[in-house]
TrEMBL record:
It comes from Actinacidiphila glaucinigra. SUPFAM superfamilies: (Trans)glycosidases (SSF51445). Keywords: Glycosidase, Hydrolase. Residues 627-703 form the Glycosyl hydrolase family 36 C-terminal domain. One of its GO terms (molecular function) is alpha-galactosidase activity. Substrate binds at W180, D345, D346, R422, K455, W456, D457, M458, N459, C504, D526. Belongs to the glycosyl hydrolase. This is Alpha-galactosidase. The active site is at D457 (nucleophile), D526 (proton donor). It catalyses: Hydrolysis of terminal, non-reducing alpha-D-galactose residues in alpha-D-galactosides, including galactose oligosaccharides, galactomannans and galactolipids. It comes from the Bacteria.
Amino acid sequence: MPVISHAPDTGIWLLSTPRTSYALRIDATGAPCHIAWGPRLTLEEAAELAVPAGPDASSFEGRPPVGEELPVDGGARFGPPSLQVRFADGTRAFEWRPVGHDVHEPAPGAAELSLRFRDRVHPLEVTLRYRVHEDSDVIERHTVLRNAGDRGITVLRADSAAWSLPPLPDYRLSHVTGQWSAESQLRRDRLPYGETVLTSRRGITSHHANPWVMLDAGDATETHGRVWSAALAWSGSWRITAQRTPDGRAGFTGGAGHDGTSVPLAPGEEFTTPGFAAVCTDGGFGAASRAWHAHTLAHVLPHPWETAPVLYNSWEATGFDVDEPGQRALAARAATLGVELYVVDDGWFGARRHDRAGLGDWAPAADRFPSGLAPLSDEVHRLGMRFGLWVEPEMVNPDSDLYREHPDWVLHVPDRTRTELRNQLVLNFARQDVADWAYDWLTRLVAKNGVDFLKWDMNRAFSEAGWPGRDDGADRLWTRYVHNLYGVIDRLRADHPQLRIESCSGGGGRVDLGILSRTDQAWPSDNTDAADRVAIQHGYGQVYPARTMAAWVTDVPNQLTHRTVPLRFRFHVAMAGLLGIGGDLTRWPEEELAEGAELVAGYKRVRHLVQHGALHRLRGPGDEGPTVVEYAAHDGSEALVLAWQRVQRHGGPRGPVRLGGLTPGARYRDTRTGTVHHATVLDGYGLSLDLPPGDWASSAVHLVRLAERDGA
């Protein structure tokens, strides 16, 4: 069981997970301060680490900038504040006054600590909440603010949590950067002295950064070393600030919002920050990833242990040229491949013949679907597949009936140009009437047409983010938009328990633990080029599990990169996640249809490993040599090894790869060749990859553990 213990004589709180401990205390000023975060400790051992702060080195130093649980703006603090407030009389800063605590079990196998504080003068209450689980080393934190007075308070910054690292000889920061069609590019760089800010000011999680970080001493590898990592559960603008101080410490703070925005807190109003969870692991970056994957499956996703179906999506086959006969023909071919979920993409509604019109008018196009969508849905179901639709509920084209009727519904600022990106504007989901409108048509659409799956897209960032008619609208909309978005999805799923949803934002623009707590999977990138996807999926999988990672096989030359790679290579790359197909099946020759059906069937035999097994990155993307990943069953009973070699150089490295997650002393049979391998050899010496000669070579090796009585 997770344990939260307290020593009243020292004031220390100790949170214990299966393999780690987290210790903090309330200091003499009333401020919550960090003590330790790492291997398991007892309260007595934690007390040894609770060294009182020494005298200031000089009048220029003040409190150490790293070491508080939530650094505030106030007193002699000069680091990045996690909490900044302005009271009605103009006073800024916050002074801690402890007022209580409680420990309870919010769910079986979980324990939660709440530390309650109040400003020493003003009626602002702050509660720090910590949650631990019996099956996870991830610690979940968030902060609750409450205005207990009768005058408004402006919250200039309210981070969810701050995390402190122990003194280390060096620090390295891992994170991802990117852009549309090139998301999740992994970076590992020495953490510079000063402050490093990762942020999105776009109203969405963004393609350009993602709200997670990993830090280590600069010596961690994929399989060795201690790693500290945190991820924010928020789908709007966000900011994480990592800092390295001259006295040899490092830490980071993060939460919703970006510079220049604030949260008005009316009398009696409460504001709850999103979760900012973190984990400390031994065993390198691979162990950190597996900890996140297991936690996401156990405590984030709504239906984690379901087997995700093989999907077909019509977009790259048809573009906007969508009609019932064409979709029926594609559905018939998809069914012969073994597809289990058929998704109609953009173009099925209103005047949507291109991206300049129709968005917002969510009724089936009468000239293309004269009897509505129900006949197509019925046919897809008859073919043994589920039926899905693409939707973009948060957007509108100016050339649409919706915009002509409700031009005030979009984000805008009076007397400012309404900037169009992709010929569309953003509907103000912070408005309850807009959110209710979206929920109303969505729930009717799903019910009327037997919709099993929605690909929920969002194809542009916020601009002119105003809310005319409300004095505080420009500040309130940033958080209320996201909460109303979550609310629409939650209501929709409550109405339709069978409905499954994919998060998409022009690809990977909205991937985070917040949206994944109410959807089932995510679209990592609009770039379906298998060669580029290897790196994108490598970065995505640092925190997010393969069970959430949609991956398609599309046609060549690729629509975006114009690169041509073999069908088998494309399938093997997509098999590393939730396999989907997005090519124009009416143009696939019979031999490709036959090969595709064989590969789909092969994926179905191993997808339980991909979707629910433990990921081991055996060899990362590089200029030479193959990229290799392994998915191992948690009980060691079987494993899948996927390898992709872009270009082979004569005389280049062809060494074996050492596997992980196998049962010591056991033997494993390759289900394709019948070859039997000893786990001791596979783990200690490696598996020789049987890659075919030539460029764009790939392989999938399925190993199954033999029973002791089975012979070789």
